[in-house]
Write a structure and sequence with these properties.
five-stranded mixed β-sheet, L-amino peptidase D-ALA esterase/amidase, disordered C terminus, alpha+beta
Length: 234
C-alpha cells in the first residue's frame, strides 16, 4: 500500500544518464491538499491555491521534480493525464485537476535534458499502489547532500519514504534528501547531539545545512474508519 494510505498511487520517471527525474503521487478520491512553503527561492505550483490563504482544498496529484524551475513543466503532463482519465475538480464547464508541484535544483551543466510534461505523464503511467522505490530514482535521481563546503564536497542523496501509524491514523511521508533530509537530519543532529548525520565532507565546513529550508505538501484522504494523512515534505 503506497505510503500507507489506501487508494494512493506513486510513480517515478528517471533519467539515469542525466541524473534527474520526477515522482508523482496520485491521491485517492476525495483527498484534500495543503502546502506550506519555506525558504527564499522555492519553485512551486498551486502554492497560493493550496496555501493557508487559499480556498482550494481538493488535490488530485503532487509532483516532485528535478530540473529546477524547468521541472515544474512536469505538472503539465500530470494535468493532461488526469484530464484524460476524468480526474479533477468539477466546475461544470470543465473538470480541472489540482496538481501541486515542487522542484529541486539538480542541474549539473548547461544544455542537459530536463524533466518535462512527457516525464510527468510517464510517472503517472508508472504509478502503482505498491511501496515506492527508494534511492536514485524519480526526484531523488540527482539529489545531493552536505554541500555547505561546495558542491564538490557533497554526497549522493536519493528518494525515501516512511509510514507511521497510531490512534487510527496513518501518516506516509515521501522524502527528498536534497532539501528535507539535509535540513532535518543536520539541523536536529547539530542542535541535539552536536553531530551532523549528513554534513559536508569539506574540512572546516559547517556541519548543518539549515539554509536549505523544507517545504510541505500534504493531502488528507477520507476513509470509512479514520482520517488518513499523506504528507510530502520537500
Amino acid at each position: 500500500m503506497a505510503l500507507g494510505v489506501e487508494g494512493t498511487r506513486v510513480g517515478c520517471w528517471t533519467d539515469h544518464a542525466n541524473h534527474t527525474g520526477c515522482t508523482v503521487v496520485l491521491a485517492p478520491p476525495g483527498a484534500q491538499g495543503a502546502i506550506a512553503v519555506r525558504g527564499g527561492a522555492p519553485g512551486t505550483r498551486e502554492a497560493a491555491a493550496l496555501g493557508p490563504t487559499g480556498n482550494v482544498r481538493e488535490c488530485h496529484a503532487i509532483v516532485l521534480s528535478g530540473g529546477s524551475a524547468f521541472g515544474l513543466a512536469t505538472a503539465d503532463g500530470v494535468v493532461d493525464w488526469c484530464v484524460e482519465h476524468g480526474i479533477g475538480y468539477d466546475k461544470t464547464v470543465a473538470v480541472i485537476p489540482i496538481v501541486g508541484a515542487a522542484i529541486v535544483f539538480d542541474l549539473r551543466s548547461s544544455g542537459v535534458p530536463r524533466p518535462g510534461p512527457s516525464a510527468g505523464r510517464a510517472a503517472c503511467e508508472a504509478a502503482t499502489a505498491d511501496d515506492p522505490p527508494q534511492g536514485s530514482v524519480g526526484v531523488g535521481a540527482g539529489c545531493t547532500v552536505g554541500k555547505t563546503g561546495g558542491l564538490e564536497w557533497g554526497s549522493k542523496g536519493g528518494q525515501g519514504w516512511a509510514v507511521e501509524r497510531g490512534g487510527g491514523i496513518a501518516v506516509g511521508a515521501l522524502k527528498d534528501p536534497h532539501r528535507q533530509l539535509v535540513y532535518v537530519m543536520c539541523d536536529a543532529a547539530s542542535a541535539r547531539t552536536a553531530r551532523a548525520a549528513a554534513s559536508s565532507r569539506a574540512i572546516g565546513a559547517p556541519n548543518s545545512a539549515i539554509t536549505e529550508s523544507p517545504m510541505y505538501l500534504s493531502m488528507v484522504a477520507p476513509c470509512s474508519s479514520a482520517t488518513r494523512d499523506i504528507s510530502v515534505r520537500y
